[in-house]
Amino acid sequence: MTVAADGPPKLITPTLKTGILPGTTQGAAFAGAERAGWELGYGPLTPEDVRSADHAWLLSSVRLASPISRVDQAAKDVSEHYTSQLMDFLAQDLAETYPAEP
User: Fold this and answer.
1) Burial class (CB in 10 A: 0-12, 13-18, 19+), 11
2) Measured between alpha carbons, how far is 79 from 81 in angstroms, rounded to an integer?
3) CA distance 80 to 20
4) Which of 2, 5, 46, 89 has minimal Cβ neighbours within 10 Å of its Cβ?
């Protein structure tokens, strides 16, 4: 994620053209982020992209949004604010997509 001083946050995920499968958790995060007015992007991501991002997370169906605090030997800022927002997006969208059984 990149946070611009004068604009909305921007989330970027690897493009499906790299051979990865579309992710349910990533899709839910992007749906919530889009509703909140965040910018979304797909593209090839390199380790340098992750190192230079303001914040980064690994998304999974088990851990949901797990902040990345280090890349190689470099520490990264962890944003409780944006992590909380991502978790809220996931809670809402995953509950709508996969409602609890009666």
Assistant:
1) buried
2) 5
3) 28
4) 5
Q: Report the number of distinct structural domains present in the chain.
A: 1
**What DSSP character marks residue 19?**
S
Report the 3 state secondary structure along 49-73: HHHHCCCCEEEECCCEEEECCEECC
Q: Convert the pLDDT of each residue in 21-45 to its tens digit.
A: 778 888 899 999 999 999 999 988 8
Q: What is the CATH number of the domain that holds 8?
A: 3.20.10.10
pTM to 2 decimals? 0.82
Cα–Cα distance measured from residue 101 to residue 49, given in angstroms and rounded to the nearest whole number: 40
pLDDT at residue 98 greater than cutoff 70? no
Give the other-Cβ count within 10 Å of 52's Cβ.
Answer: 13
CA distance 86 to 70: 19
For residue 101, tell me if it sits in a domain: no
Q: Is residue 36 part of a domain?
A: yes
